[in-house]
Amino acid sequence: MSELGPVRAEFSYTTRKEGPPTDLVQRIFDGGALIVENVLPDDRFLYPGGIVAEASVKALDLDGDGKAEVIFDLYTGGAHCCFNTEYCDPPSRAHFNQDWGHIGYRREDFDGDGLPSTARPTTSSRAPTRPTPSAGRR
User: Fold this and answer.
1) Which own/partner contact pairs does 18-25 have at CB distance under 8 Å and 24+ positions apart?
2) The pLDDT value given to residue 132
3) Rounded CA separation 131/69 (Å)
4) What is the structure's pLDDT at 124?
5) What is the pLDDT of residues 79-114, one digit of tens each?
6) What is the number of structural domains in the chain?
7) For position 69, which CATH number holds?
8) 34-38 long-range CB contacts below 8 Å, 24 or more apart?
9) Fewer Cβ in 10 A, N or C end of the chain?
10) Residue 80 lies in domain
């Protein structure tokens, strides 16, 4: 669970002895009211995960508007694993997905504007990007 202001995000699931968890559900509340409930199908083989040593769900102000956006970090596991992030902007309910491939990402203020930018931890010359939940819809 993660909270920022009136926004609370939850990620629930049931673990199994073998294989990925089942019954994965993402929920977002605003002022106590459930505004998003996303049930992830078991055939996506997803695990909670993402950035090592951080929670799988985070409520953060990514765009500096004083309101929380929600990040759900997921992992597909396996030899050719993939990191995936689902972004949601609770007020607009804009929702989109970013596939990071097998590298993942890191979140840092690369340009010094006080807002978290994201970039793959790679040696390529890719410029950092700032996730903007209103930029796309899923």
Assistant:
1) 19/45, 20/45, 20/46, 20/47, 20/77, 21/46, 21/47, 21/48
2) 42
3) 10
4) 45
5) 767 888 888 888 777 777 777 777 667 677 777 777
6) 1
7) 2.40.128
8) 35/90, 35/93, 36/88, 36/90, 36/93, 36/95, 38/86, 38/95
9) C
10) 2-135
